[in-house]
Amino acid sequence: MTWQHLFFPAALAFAAAIAPGAAAQPEPEKVKVEVYADVQAIAPGATFHLAVQYDIEPDWHIYWVNSGDTGYATSLEIEAPDGFVIGPVQYPGPHRFGQPGDLVSFGHEGRATFIVEVKAPDTLISDAKLRFETHSDWLVCKEACVMGSADRAIVLRTVPIIEDVKPANTARFAAAAARMPRELKALKTGRPHWRGSKSSPRFVATFPKDVEFDIFPLLAADVKYHDPEIIQLDDGSSRLSVTFDVNESRVWPAGPRSLAVLRVKNGDEELYYDLVPVFE
After folding, report:
1. SS3 letters across 132-173
2. Residue 7: per-residue pLDDT
3. What number is the average pLDDT over the span 210-224?
4. Domain check: are 61 and 88 in the same one?
5. Residue 64 sits in the same domain as residue 101
6. pLDDT of 66-85, one tens digit each?
7. pLDDT bracket for residue 279 (50, 70, 90)
């Protein structure tokens, strides 16, 4: 068995996260954690998904992969049987939380579900029971902050062929997927486009009146995020513009990557989008 460590940076110093009033002992009742899968069984060579769901006590929040000015990013580790390949964590879109001293943090409230793709090896013993274990650490905050952690496991049996695999938790995965960032080309509210160069890409988007929007930078050592500019236009619409400084030699050779997540709320519909620069 090997542990797959998944991306969980802490933004700024952890000491800032547990500012005055913070408690450093676990209080698991603030956050309830559950793990489930989108299949009832596993077949050789099949791809499936695990979900780790965090149900957070009302008025409290945990932190996104970039926690912002304060906080501590929620961490997730997966232990899988030998031969399984664990993909990166897929994080739901965050919300913005104001903090004393004009500080801002990014995180989740209510319910947050992290999804991980898993690839089975080409050979599996039939009708075996395989155990997948997860370990999470988080900081949950209201006026004060509390550290918490949880270990959860799920056991899935194996079947000989992929045709024997039946789906599970379909509605729950659909609800979780709706909170995940999607491709920018799916945006129907607003007019987005990219300007600038590979070393200084600039995202610009115009949104109609009464449409809420926000932008959340992803953490990367070779990318600098500039504060966004928002201009109110005469017709009541708003124009968002944000520039990134990118180390071309380190970032782009690996292929296109998201630099930030865009949140757009139009009435009751709230959707998130990955901001992956496009250069013509």
Report:
1. EEEEEEEEEECCCEEEEEEEEEEEEEECCCHHHCCECCHHHH
2. 39
3. 94
4. yes
5. yes
6. 999 999 999 999 999 999 99
7. confident
Least confident of 28-32, 38-42, 157-161: 28-32
Look at the block and give the residue holding tokens 């949104």: 207
| pTM of the model as a whole | 0.88
Instruction: Quote the Cα angle for 210-215-220, to 5°.
Output: 175
Query: In terms of domains, do 117 and 227 share one?
Result: no
Domain limit, last residue, from 147, 177, 207:
177
Residue among 96, 65, 66, 70 nearest 13 (CA): 70
Q: Do 64 and 100 belong together in one domain? A: yes
Is residue 280 a part of any domain in this protein? Answer: no
Q: Would you call 251 helix, strand, or coil by DSSP?
A: helix
User: Would you say 178 and 62 are in contact if contact means Cβ atoms under 8 Å apart?
Assistant: no
Structure tokens at 4: 């797959």
Domain holding 193, by residue range, is 182-275
Residues 257 and 124 in one domain: no
Which tokens hold the place of 51? 């979900």
Count of domains for the chain: 2
Judge if 71 and 158 occupy the same domain: yes
CATH number at residue 242: 2.60.40.10
pLDDT of residue 111: 98
Inform me whether the pLDDT recorded for 23 exceeds 80: no
Q: Label residue 151 by pLDDT band (50, 70, 90).
A: very high
161: nearest Cα among 194, 122, 130, 134: 122
DSSP letter for each residue of 160-206: SSGGG--B--HHHHHHHHTTS-EEGGG--SSEEEEEE-SSSEEEEEE
